[in-house]
Amino acid sequence: MTKTTDAVGRVLVTFSRSWQALAAIRSLGRRGLEVVTGDEIALTPGAMSRFSIDSFQYPNSATDPEGFLDALDDAVRRFRPSEGVPYVLLPVHRETYLIARYRYRFEPHIRLALPPSELIEEVRDKGRLTEIAQDLGITTPRTWSPSSSSDLEKMIDDIGYPAFVKVRKGVAGVGLERVESVGELRSAFQALSDGLGTDELPPIIQEAAPGDDYCVSALLDRGQTRAVMTYRNLRSIVDGAPGAVRQTVEAAGPEAAAVELLEGLEWHGIAQVDFLWTGSAADAPVLIEINPRLFGGLFQTIASGVDYPWMLYRLALGERIEPSVDIDFEVLSETPVFGLLATLREAVENAAQWQIIEAAWDEAKELLAEGSPGEGLETLWSGLKEGLDAEQRQQALTSLLEEREVSISQLFCDDDPKAALGLLYPLAIFLSQGKVTSGMVVGAEPVNEGRSEPR
User: Fold this and answer.
1) Where are the alpha helices (DSSP H) in 125-218?
2) At which of 158, 178, 207 does a domain end?
């Protein structure tokens, strides 16, 4: 069992493959807290971080919820620190919803800062969220909620294009399709409906709204706003995915709407509210969704002076959080691995190139499993250099280094270099599927069955 030394507290962080988990782990570790990291797989950015004192694995929370809860329950008890040392559970991704629902299993042993499960489920439903926002006078896209394909036909002539077909509780762009015509709308609605469970409502349709993507993050203490900051996504590699390049901005309109919505819900904990907005005070920001958990741009908020992981830790302990007003609006951050993935995607079409890259990956996995990460990375990179032609290599390197001179990387940092090994996870997904998707970008997609996961 991991022993506590002189730490001021201990935190369990889930879904450690994600960039937001890595941001939280670094933030908390630098403040002297002990961080234990968990995930379905072993080789993750969070587990490789020098701030992770130990790690554990659990089953997939979506496909094996009972197994996940049992494994987390075991980890909470196993890593419990000495008496009197503060102990907090910080869930990161969709497992947040399951933990909120079964919080009674954990709260006798560890602290949480989450809103009620019923409220989380209500705002996760994009159709229900639209109704709530409209009741509060907050602008939303024109929305249709057909109960079936036949019901869709009754309203199909009213729908303008482009439009989006959205699974009600999709995450990170998974379950979202942009359509440009009636035919595409029918096809997307049917395809997304076919993938739903028997207890899930059909997708909604929303007309595209004008404006840029503004992400308002906030932390509330039982309905009282304690921190708000906003960033814009300047570039994304995949439609619907978190931004690859972000910039902190002042956005009074979206922030006022977000605060009105969250305070009206008496929210507790963290949330990100996404809007489309033209940037003009004359135009109302258009609400897109609420993310009721840690979000992809968490690094951006921390770098801008709004340290949500630290505030969540203190909120879970019942401390009073003073409003945060000192924000650095000069921060630009990026995730360079997206550029490399986008370049690799082009190599898939060339079978000979692809065979070289796959062979290098298979050899690299063996070296990593044997405990030789340096040799594994060297083997992988040599295969990439050989498998990509000169022009593609130049594109990959350019993408990898793009905007580094003026921006901050959320992956690479001098005091925690080994965490960069975690980029092998999205590479593993890419090498098994041959494509770049929004689910891959946030680690929401499993490796294909029959393929080895990184160990």
Assistant:
1) 126-135, 149-155, 182-194
2) 207
Question: Which residues are within 8 A (CB) of 434 and not within 5 positions of it... i.e. 6 or more apart?
Answer: 345, 348, 354
Residues 321 and 222 in one domain: yes
Alpha-carbon span 398 to 248, nearest angstrom = 24
Whether the pLDDT of residue 163 is over 90: the answer is yes
- Terminal CA-to-CA distance of the chain, rounded, Å? 22
The larger pLDDT score, comparing residue 435 to residue 295, is at 295
Phi, psi (deg, nearest 5) at residue 214: -110, 125
Residue 136 lies in a domain: no
| Residue 204: how many other CB atoms lie within 10 Å | 22
pTM: 0.80
Q: Which tokens go with 261? A: 């919505």
- Cα separation of 382 and 104, whole Å? 50
CA–CA distance from 198 to each of 149, 169, 202 (Å)? 15, 14, 10
pLDDT of 435 over the 60 cut: no
pLDDT of residue 326: 85
454 falls in which pLDDT band (50, 70, 90)?
A: very low
Largest CA distance in the chain: 66
Q: Which DSSP string corresponds to 365-399?
A: HHHHHTT-HHHHHHHHHHHHHHHS-HHHHHHHHHH
Beta pairing class for 87-90 and 10-13: parallel
Looking at the chain, the whole-number percentage of residues with pLDDT higher than 90 is 56
Region 24-50 average pLDDT: 92
DSSP string, 309-346: HHHHHHHHTTPPPPPB----TT-EEE-THHHHHHHHHH
Strands 204-207 and 143-144: antiparallel
Residues 346 and 393 in one domain: yes
| Domains identified in the chain, total number | 4
Task: Please give the mean pLDDT across all residues of the chain.
Answer: 82
d(CA 394, CA 400): 10
Q: Verify cis geometry, omega within 30 degrees of 0, for the bond prior to 285.
A: no
Are residue 371 and residue 432 in the same domain, yes or no?
yes
Q: Which domain holds residue 262?
A: 212-333
At residue 347, the pLDDT reads 52
Burial of 322 (0-12, 13-18, 19+ CB in 10 A): exposed
What is the mean pLDDT of the segment spanning 161-173? Answer: 82
Total residues found in the chain within this entry: 455
Sign of CA dihedral 271, 277, 281, 282: negative
Contact 292, 86 (CB under 8 A): no
Structure tokens at 437: 């998707």
